[in-house]
From TrEMBL:
Keywords: Glycosyltransferase, Transferase. It comes from the Bacteria. GO terms for biological process: trehalose biosynthetic process. Transmembrane segments: none annotated. The keyword Glycosyltransferase applies. Pathway: Glycan biosynthesis; trehalose biosynthesis. It is an enzyme of class 2 (transferase). It catalyses: D-glucose 6-phosphate + UDP-alpha-D-glucose = alpha,alpha-trehalose 6-phosphate + UDP + H(+). Belongs to the glycosyltransferase 20 family. Homotetramer. This is Trehalose-6-phosphate synthase. CDD domains: GT20_TPS.
Amino acid sequence: MKRLVVVSNRVAEPGCSHAAGGLAVCILDALRKRGGVWFGWNGEIVPDDAEIDVSRVKFDELTLATMPLTERDYRDYYLGFANAALWPVHHYRLDLARFTQEAIDGYRRVNDRFAEKLAPMLMSNDLVWVHDYHFIPLGAALRERGVANRIGFFLHIPFPPPDVLCAMPEHEWLMSALVEYDLVGFQTKTDQANFLRFMCDFMQGEMLTPDLVRVGGKTVTASVFPVGIDVDSFSAMAESPSAAERIQRLHRAGEPRINVIGVDRLDYTKGLPDRLRSFKRLLEIYPQNCKAVTLMQIAPPTREDVQAYADIRHELEALSGEINGQFGDFDWTPVRYLHRRVDRDTLAALYRGSQVGLVTPLRDGMNLVAKEYVVAQDAENPGVLVLSRFAGAAEELQEALIVNPYDADEVANAMQKAIVMPLGERKERHAALLARVRKHDSYNWMDGFLRALSACRLPLAA
Ligand code: ADQ
């Protein structure tokens, strides 16, 4: 079996993998089995004039290779281009995108540096798997350094329609860099179609098969690999005795009976203000839910150095305060908003103890919370998933109540439908959803991608 080299912005350590979630665990598993390297940023920021070295930690056949970013890199590459330009553009939010020359220069600089440090670590047979929007040009930067290995790229976030993408300065450069990969993987058919449309309409690409496109003498395979979760380990967490105890505490006497749960990084793509407005509509249209239903929204801080993230936090705090002020009573708080991380066991218990899972992003690559919610349910008395049509997960999870997150009344009506849904229908929907989540679990995702990458023919000598 070929050695695997994974590149991603952050690297998970074997000891911390439980906290890091399913994807990290399954990547670590593969790296341990095959032997290999996981290369990325160590999370440290050093002064601009510091020497940048790669540090290596070995765990048997697996090496974690990491390096810091300088202050300038962090500002230009990480905050400036990755998170204030690529992230909003890929989530169809041109209004929030900021483009500066420093940011794009920083993005090029850091990708070049990663390529320069990575190239000498590679052996000729290694499979190289690059993750996500931080590293779109990494494959091309490796090719410039003579790397002829099979290199694959997986995009965890959406790929926008060509008309959105082409509003971004430097999009031609970025897109031509993608052609240097042998395989480019997407979460959904929509993303794949947007990419292929860009290749054909904007770059004179020619389709050779439904997922193989030739662009300027290069061929690249574009396929769909929906990300999944580690189903068995997550359901074990949800079924543990300590989870049962937590659920009991959630429903202790005097508390409302119905719990609606939302769990998201506090990101403007997750549609949190719209979700709160929908919850408010639920209380207005169906006042019988007053004192009976609580929305628990868990939204840990993220990327707070980017202005749009500070803005969304203030908006959310104001909205939850407004709803609690208007509808709350001495013995009932309609919205419980927690602005922090929660460990995964507790999360599993909270999902299981909630009759409605509310996953309503305005745009999302996949959304693993939707899958976690399904897996955590008690199959004999499952809750109902209300899911945005704009989450990648909606392409698969058709038995959820699929909603348009921009339409507050539609989401409120779906919540009400979920609250009163008879047990028989809940069980039927849940069984179908669980089968789908099982079919596309994290291992299936990884095997599918690596098998497809291995099957790509080797590029002609670089
Ligand atoms: P994210 O945007 O981070 O991921 P998501 O897929 O929902 O979104 O994953 C979030 C993970 O963080 C889940 O496993 C969830 O349990 C966990 N999490 C969220 N809030 C938490 C909290 N308060 N405490 C602890 N854990 C919390 C990106 C893309 C997604 C894509 C994934 C994977 O934006 O669309 O599904 O990558 O490809």
